Amino acid sequence: MEELMDILTELHPDVDYDTCTTLVDDRIIDSFDIISIISEVAARLDVQIPAEEIIPENFNSAKSLWELIERLENE
Amino acid sequence: MLFTSYGFIAFIAILFVVYYIVPKKWQWPLLLMASGVFYWIADPRYLIFIFVTSLSAWGCGVLMARINDGQALYLKEHADTVTKDEKKALKAKNKKRKWHILLACLILNIGILAVTKYTDFVIDNINNAFHSGLHKVDLIIPMGISFYTFQTMSYIIDAYRGTVTPERNPFKLALFTSFFPQLVQGPINRYGDLSKTLYEPHRFSEKVFSMGLMRILWGYFKKVVVADRMITAVTMLVSDTDTYTGAYVFVAMFFYAFELYCDFTGGIDITIGIAQALGITMKENFNLPYFSKDIKEYWNRWHISMGSWFTDYIFYPLSVSPRMLKLSKWSREHLGKVIGKRVTVYLAAFIVWFTTGLWHGAAWNFIVWGLMNFVVIMISQELAPLYSKFHKKFGFKGKSWYTVFEIIRTIFLMSLIRMFDCYRNVPMTFKMVGTMFTRFRLKIFTDGSLLKLGLTKYDYIVLAVALIVILSVSIFKYNRGEVRTKLYEKPWLWYGAMSALFIVIIVFGAYGIGYDSTQFIYNQF
Amino acid sequence: MTKKRAFIIVFYLVLTVAVLWFVQRLVMPKYQYGIVEGAMAAEYYEADEPHEVIFVGDCEVYEAISPVTLYEEYGISSYIRGSAQQLVWQSYYLLEDALRYETPKVVVFNVLALKYDEPQSETYNRMTIDGMRLSPSKIGIIEESMTPDEKMIEYIFPILRYHSRWSELDQDDWDYLWDRDRVTHNGYYMRVDIKPEAEFPEPPLLTDYSLGDNAMYWLGRMADLCAENDIELVLIKSPIKFPFWYDQWDQQVSAFARSRGLTYINFIDARDDMGLDMTRDTYDAGLHLNLTGAEKFARYLGAILDESYDLTDYREVPEVAAEWEDICEAYHAMAAAQYQELIEYGYLRNWGSAAVEMGRP
Q1: Which of A27, A31, A42 has its CB closest to that of B315?
Q2: What is the tens place of the pLDDT at every residue in B192-248?
Q3: Contacts of B64 by beta carbon, 8 Å cutoff, 6+ apart
Q4: What are phi and psi of B499, to 5 degrees?
Q5: CB proximity list for C83: less than 8 A, separation 6 or greater
Q6: Nearest Cα to C294, choosing from C182, C129, C184?
Q7: CB contact at 8 A, A4 and A49
Q8: A14: exposed, middle or buried (C-beta count within 10 Å: 0-12, 13-18, 19+)?
Q9: Predicted confidence (pLDDT) at residue B483 exceeds the cutoff of 60
């Protein structure tokens, strides 16, 4: 989870990832950001996020993103 | 059939009546028949193409479903004996089979689209590059092929991804593919969304019907009173490139911005309104696009279904594909972190905007238009940190005057880029835009030149009033949410507004003898 | 849905229809000044007296025959259902329309229109058709006359055609919103000015001298209609030399008349007999007759009609004579007014091209 928070904070330092649950809906992160996140996650956490998982539900909060990563790791 | 024809209006009027009379389980088959009739009237030759697309998508979906069912059954029966590795291998093998089916479907249908729409473009380019004398083939382009192909491909891709369950009924899928309101200029619907209401039985509700009808009237108002009125002036301004230089280009920019907005959003209002009146919900395709503060926001508000299609089915899959991730890793290692992490993002974005431009039309000016958008987005992305520092220092962001500035800047920028749509020729566009800076004559705004564009002073009055009305409604919507639901609760205003819209369209509409009958700009897609 | 909402819906439906109906009346051209042909079709319905003779045709009829002369000298009560460039099927349908109100004894048709086999002009169509009352005849005339861009629904609801006039409304549109003035005298369009007939160019050689099949078909329909209603159909060619009436056409019409047992008279040859003086009896160098010419032609034609057919002398029928007294009075008053303008201006100011170009003073 730490690594993920690092990745997110590097992208947008001002955002409070602990509490925010509308990252996508409020356009705090856009499609470019999502791609950056995915490639960092692949590089640093060795988890490939497939295109069909790129939905607002998964990216709206750091917590849901972490849950996605964990789920993919276990499959 | 154009939306703005008596025939079409009679068609939907009759459809509305019959739809609510027949037994509810016949409603969606009725819509399928109506769509067939609509397409037949447009041109019977088109039918074979849309039939092939629909049938192939249905067939491939059913094949995928069979694989899924087979897999599920096998795993259930062998739940105790199968190992984790065997399970993984089976899933991988089936996924590969489904991938081949998907590929076949995509190649067939994108192939049809490519051949009918782009063959002559390719031939032209070959001729220009190699000075060959190949003949153009002038194939017919089925109406709406760009829209329905993309819509149906989204279905089969979603089926492959497992985000939708394949439709077993070929007629239901045929309706999804060919539902007539969306054939003219979209929106590009998703099966997961549209299927929720497309096949359901719909009981007549005055409220639902009324909301749809109001939306249809609002769409016709924008299309017939504004867009069709302005098109003569816009056409005149962009066809005579010798006379209409300098300040006229500036005028053309904003005229076209207003005209295209009313034409496109008006047409979408009619489309979504017709669906709504039938009890069917479609996702919005526009969300006050001219209130955008920057280009990225603009593309979240303008032609939303197209943007999200390209994002979900090209941008994301491309960016997260193993090859792209490998490239990303490679470029990070060899080109440094700063450049490295940008390579794949911008490469994917470039491809997206190239294909977006290409999708709009088989001509270089559309491709250049797409790439212009890419360039602006890239620049705005790179300047973001700088802007961030600037705003931290000066604190403008959020102040209303700065927001207005951002809005005007975005409108200007997007209108400028859009000129590639107008002049139909890349070098000419650059040249004409150039004259805006070199030959700008303020005089044309005061010496009556603007009255020689096919618009009388009465036309300008109508346009000004329409602009005020549209702007007021938009501002209300921006600040206080959807106008229609609130207005419905005040019946004297609600039905009064409908009556007023209808009268205004009939009396002030730019239709009939004396007005050129105009095509929707997106019709030959 | 509540009763209140239902009431409001009905209220606005009625209001919308009322507003659009009012706007339609407002934007439809009134044809009261300058170009007046568009008002002619509707004027027929105002006539209270019966007509034993009905003339149908184009300007070679409605500007060439004076119904007042026919009445004053023979007691014949007639009406001219004519309009600019009235095509043969249009004459057919206007006649069919008239038959819903009365059955004349004689119908006189000017055959020049046979040279047009197809719909010609949206403008002329509108002037001929818009004034008709809605009926099967009106539907028929519309269908037969529409040029490619025209649509039936725009005739049924003329607001769809004329709505763009909202920005061109003039005083006449408001003044004549509910009533109109008479612009003709039982269908006759009066002009007293004089412009002598000039030399006409040589008629062009045609590749095909046969009158169109469609035109002849409608002539046949007209003959059938008259036969069915016991009406004598008389075919005439008005004594006007331009547009040119070819011998071949003349022969074809004669042959047709013979085959149907109809009378056909070419009055171009009878110019001298009727005393027509084309240095004084035309107002536009021979294209149309003026008042004196129309009276001469009426006198001559009237004698033929009077002798050939058993027509009532309505001078002896008090109710009808009373109607005709008013008609004659208006006729002579207009003639006087027009002659006065000739004296004052040297040309007609409130009729014809001056009126069209300059508008009301």
Answers
A1: A31
A2: 999 999 999 999 999 999 999 999 999 999 999 999 999 999 999 999 888 888 899
A3: B98, B101, B102, B159, B160, B166
A4: -60, -45
A5: C37, C38, C40, C41, C58, C62, C90, C124, C127, C128
A6: C184
A7: no
A8: exposed
A9: yes
Q: Does the distance separating the beta carbons of A50 and B344 come in below 8 Å?
A: no
CB A59 within 8 A of CB A24: yes
Scanning C76-135 for CB atoms below 8 A from B yields: 122
Region B394-419 average pLDDT: 89
Size of interface B-C (CB pairs under 8 A): 55
The letter for the amino acid at C106 is V
Q: Identify the pLDDT of residue B524.
A: 36
DSSP label at residue C348: -
- State how far the Cα of C313 lies from the Cα of C302, in Å rounded to an integer: 12
The pair of structure tokens assigned to C162 is 């004329």
What percent of chain B has pLDDT above 70?
A: 98
Mean pLDDT over residues B154-180, rounded? Answer: 96
Whether residue C270 contacts residue C239, with contact meaning beta carbons closer than 8 Å, is answered with yes
Which of B163, B309, B319 is the mutation pick for testing A, counting most A CBs within 10 A?
B319
Dihedral (C-alpha) B224, B225, B227, B229: value to the nearest 10 degrees? 110
ipTM above 0.95, yes or no: no
Question: Which residues does residue C82 pair with via DSSP β-bridges, in sequence order?
Answer: C57
Residues contacting B9, CB < 8 A, separation 6+:
none
Spatial contact of B184 and B522, defined as CB atoms under 8 Å apart = yes
Taking only the tens place, the pLDDT of each residue in C91-107 is: 999 999 999 999 999 99
Ordered strands of the C78-82 beta sheet: C78-82, C53-57, C106-110, C232-237, C263-266
Q: Distance between CA B5 and CA B167 in Å, rounded?
A: 34
User: Where along chain C do its domains lie?
Assistant: 3-357
d(CA A50, CA A69): 11
Topology (CATH level 3) of domain C3-357: Rossmann fold (3.40.50)
Candidates C58, C81, C88; CA nearest to C216 is C88
For B10, the closest chain C residue by CA position comes to C153
Tell me which chain C residues have a C-beta less than 8 angstroms from the C-beta of B510: 164
By CB atoms closer than 10 A (0-12, 13-18, 19+), residue A10 is exposed
Asked if the peptide bond before residue C201 counts as cis, ω within 30 degrees of 0, the response is no
Residue whose C-alpha is closest to residue B57's, from B180, B189, B197, B158: B158
CA distance B172 to B28: 8
Nearest CA in chain A to B377: A32
Distances (CA, A) of C326 to B268, B439, C45, C185: 62, 70, 16, 10
C128: nearest Cα among C95, C106, C103: C95
| CB-count exposure of residue B69 (10 Å: 0-12, 13-18, 19+) | exposed
Q: pLDDT at position B520, please?
A: 34
What is the model's pLDDT at position B514?
A: 54
Task: Measure the N-to-C terminal CA separation of chain C; round to a whole number of Å.
Answer: 58
Query: Kind of pairing, strands C263-266 and C78-82?
Result: unpaired
In the prediction, which pLDDT does B335 show? 85
Lowest mean pLDDT among B43-57, B131-145, B449-463, C276-290: B131-145
B312 to chain A: nearest residue by CA? A51
pLDDT more than 70, % of chain C: 100
Whether C164 and chain B come into contact, CB under 8 Å, resolves to yes
Q: Give yes or no for residue B1 having a pLDDT over 80.
A: no
The SS3 call for residue B192 is helix
**First and final C-alpha spacing in chain B:** 14
Q: Are B304 and B276 in contact (CB under 8 A)?
A: no
State the pLDDT confidence band at B525, using cuts at 50, 70 and 90: very low
